[in-house]
C-alpha cells in the first residue's frame, strides 16, 4: 500500500497514474496498434510464416512498429522487469482471438536458454502462456522444446547473423498427431519460429499454428 503511494503505476505512454493492473490509460489504449487478425483466415503473419514452414493458422496481437506504443509494451515485458505485462497481454489476446473449429491441442512457447533465463530472471512468455491457457482452456507445456545453445537476442543481432538457427532447438519428448500453438513475443525474420516449428513437425504427424504478441 505504501509502495503504491510512493511509486504509483503510470501509463507507459503519457505517464498518468493508473490502476496497478493496467499498462496504459484509457486514452492511450486507442494508440495501440492492434492487428485485428482473424486466426482462421489469411493474414500477413500467416503469409510470412507459410514462406518458412507449413502453418495452419496465425495470429498477432499488435504491430511492432518503430516508436510505437506496442513496441514500448513488449520492451517493458522483455527488458523492463515487468513480468505482469505478460498477463495483461494474454488478457487482451483472449478477448480478441477466436478459433472457430481450429482450436489447437497444446500451447508451447519458445524457450530461453538457461543462461538467458538467469540473466533476465524470468521467461517473458511463461506468464503470458499460462494466463492464456487458463482463458482458452488449452493445456501448455514449457518443457517440450529445449534451446540447445545460448544466442544473442534477434533484436540485438545484425541481419547477416539472424539466420543462425540451425539445430538451435530440439524436442524433448514424443509428440504426434497434435495441433500445436507455438507462442513467441515478436515475429521479425521468422527464423527462430521456423526452427522451432520444424522440430515439432518432424517429431510426428503434427500441425503448427502461430501466436505472437507483435509482428514487426
Short description:
By secondary structure, the protein is of the alpha/beta class. It has helices spanning 2-6, 26-29, 44-50, 69-79, 84-96, 114-120, 126-136, 191-203; strands spanning 58-63, 106-109, 145-147, 169-171, 179-187, 207-215. The protein has 8 helices and 6 strands, in the order αααβααβααβββαβ.
Strand content: 15-25%
DSSP helix count? 8
Return the CATH architecture. 3-Layer(aba) Sandwich
- Helix and strand element order: HHHEHHEHHEEEHE
CATH topology: Rossmann fold
Give me the secondary-structure category: alpha/beta
Largest sheet: 4 strands, parallel
Distance between the termini: 38 Å
What's the arrangement of secondary structure elements?
Blueprint: H1 2-6, H2 26-29, H3 44-50, E1 58-63, H4 69-79, H5 84-96, E2 106-109, H6 114-120, H7 126-136, E3 145-147, E4 169-171, E5 179-187, H8 191-203, E6 207-215
Parallel strand pairs: 1-6, 2-5, 5-6
Antiparallel strand pairs: 3-4
Plain-language structure description:
This protein has 216 residues and is α/β, with parallel strands linked by helices. The protein has 8 helices and 6 strands; from the N terminus they run H-H-H-E-H-H-E-H-H-E-E-E-H-E. Strand 5 (179-187), helix 8 and strand 6 (207-215) form a beta-alpha-beta unit. The radius of gyration is 17 Å and the shape is globular. The mean pLDDT is 88.
Amino acid at each position: 500500500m505504501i509502495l503504491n503511494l510512493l511509486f504509483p503505476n503510470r501509463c507507459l505512454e503519457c505517464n498518468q497514474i493508473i490502476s496497478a493492473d493496467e499498462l496504459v490509460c484509457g486514452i492511450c489504449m486507442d494508440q495501440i496498434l492492434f492487428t485485428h487478425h482473424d486466426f482462421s483466415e489469411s493474414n500477413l503473419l500467416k503469409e510470412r510464416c507459410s514462406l518458412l514452414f507449413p502453418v495452419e493458422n496465425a495470429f498477432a496481437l499488435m504491430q511492432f512498429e518503430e516508436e510505437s506504443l506496442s513496441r514500448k509494451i513488449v520492451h517493458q515485458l522483455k527488458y523492463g522487469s515487468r513480468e505482469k505485462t505478460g498477463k495483461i497481454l494474454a488478457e487482451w489476446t483472449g478477448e480478441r482471438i477466436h478459433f472457430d473449429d481450429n482450436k489447437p491441442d497444446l500451447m508451447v512457447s519458445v524457450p530461453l536458454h538457461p543462461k538467458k533465463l538467469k540473466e533476465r530472471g524470468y521467461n517473458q512468455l511463461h506468464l503470458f502462456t499460462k494466463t492464456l491457457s487458463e482463458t482458452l482452456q488449452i493445456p501448455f507445456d514449457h518443457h517440450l522444446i529445449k534451446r540447445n545453445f545460448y544466442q544473442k537476442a534477434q533484436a540485438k543481432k545484425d541481419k547477416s547473423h539472424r539466420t543462425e538457427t540451425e539445430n538451435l532447438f530440439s524436442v524433448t519428448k514424443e509428440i504426434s498427431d497434435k495441433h500445436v500453438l507455438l507462442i513467441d513475443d515478436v515475429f521479425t525474420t521468422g527464423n527462430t519460429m521456423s526452427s522451432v516449428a520444424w522440430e515439432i513437425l518432424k517429431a510426428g504427424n503434427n500441425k503448427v499454428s502461430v501466436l505472437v504478441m507483435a509482428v514487426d
